[in-house]
Amino acid sequence: xxxxxxxxxxxxxxxxxxxxxxxxxxxxxxxxxxxxxxxxxxxxxxxxxxxxxxxxxxxxxxxxxxxxxxxxxxxxxxxxxxxxxxxxxxxxxxxxxxxxxxxxxxxxxxxxxxxxxxxxxxxxxxxxxxxxxxxxxxxxxxxxxxxxxxxxxxxxxxxxxxxxxxxxxxxxxxxxxxxxxxxxxxxxxxxxxxxxxxxxxxxxxxxxxxxxxxxxxxxxxxxxxxxxxxxxxxxxxxxxxxxxxxxxxxxxxxxxxxxxxxxxxxxxxxxxxxxxxxxxxxxxxxxxxxxxxxxxxxxxxxxxxxxxxxxxxxxxxxxxxxxxxxxxxxxxxxxxxxxxxxxxxxxxxxxxxxxxxxxxxxxxxxxxxxxxxxxxxxxxxxxxxxxxxxxxxxxxxxxxxxxxxxxxxxxxxxxxxxxxxxxxxxxxxxxxxxxxxxxxxxxxxxxxxxxxxxxxxxxxxxxxxxxxxxxxxxxxxxxxxxxxxxxxxxxxxxxxxxxxxxxxxxxxxxxxxxxxxxxxxxxxxxxxxxxxxxxxxxxxxxxxxxxxxxxxxxxxxxxxxxxxxxxxxxxxxxxxxxxxxxxxxxxxxxxxxxxxxxxxxxxxxxxxxxxxxxxxxxxxxxxxxxxx
Length: 628
Description:
six-stranded antiparallel sheet, Calcium-transporting ATPase, cytoplasmic domain N, Rossmann fold, alpha+beta
């Protein structure tokens, strides 16, 4: 509880105690008026002040003015007729209790989002002439080596040049398990170094680093309002003047009619009291406060789980998703190639280890992911082998001399180029990229390199179905065999393979036109950015995803875990369910009490429940969105 909330709580307690004491004492009406004005002003001076400012600024028609008119009118009635000041003070007291609940709920949600703000680093350590100095992260250029001590935040994205450590990534991803990093690993800003000293070579400027981008997304989220939230804003602007006019008519029309038509002396006090009660009941506080709070709390609850939603409009749209289209590489798979099989040819002279040895050296100087996978699998790149006459043949593969042996590795075209068009090539009935190897004019076998499926992908597909996603589609640029193997393992039946980036956009367009269901696309690469923008909802992988994909997306999953897709959908649906509950509950109770009030069947205490009670219940209901 912050200082302002504590002060408000103290005011409420003091006013409540005074109200209880005054209930048991009796003085003349002028003295009672003076006594009751003390707790009234203690608990309600800020409401009166806001109402006055609204009038001065020509924006008077809000809940503060309604509360001011209603309570001051009730005090006037007590002075001139009833002598009971309790109702006026109680209305203001309970209204402030409701405001305190609302303030706490907003504060709780802000703290969830505020945890992200702690990822912003205050400084970066740079070593100059053996002395470590702290500098502003904005001043650090790309390629600078910074030092991160235990307990410090990583200020800028980069690559570890020296050291080992465990990183606390919970503020970014919601994941409590530390991540171990070593020399050569990429690290992102906002993580906390829990042990060890790291020397990191920066790969981005501070403004372009992960932490800065996340904070920018969070800070701009509240500017994008959902249709439900905009409806409440429009509703309040129209509703407030209407109820004020209705209250005035309720105070004037019945007495005038009774006097003109029936010749009965008008009971002005009764009808004015009803009009004031009508105003108290009509306050739209429950709607105006609880609906934005529900969305704000939903975004806060999602951020606590490592899911960044860029605005409440996207949270609302996410709740309607029935079709999820996913890119394969980097989304359902790790996007990292690994050697998954080595198969020597029948009658060949080389073992599995020798085939891998020659293939890795032939690819020694290539930066292609497949070449990297071969070198990682071999792991003994610096074993003294001599590699000469390296020649890359476009669309075929690589030819090189390794320790005097002529090695040709690549696809089937490479084999036929090396051995002739009639050469027999073994085929593998295994999903993955096939790398054939020919040594000194003899076919020696093939290596299978595959993209590894993420551990949580299969469960993610199942959870999506449980969350109400009726259609799951996988798009990939990989070959048909690889795509179908991955789809079969994950349980996805609708698969489109061998797609170029433009083909993915066309396919999403086709899927959007084929059905009226809300469609979400999940991707991570630069080539996914156009599709992310075109889909109803774009979801990007935020840890390893490209800047373009994160920028184009509406929702960012900070730990690249596909399980978070279903969780994001569940959070959004829970949020929208609570929003609709609050709308119908608040409007229903308001309409019922307004009708009862107009016919004189309820008094000011019922008005207190209708206004403050409904607001408190709606706010408490909205708080549930914080807990995903």
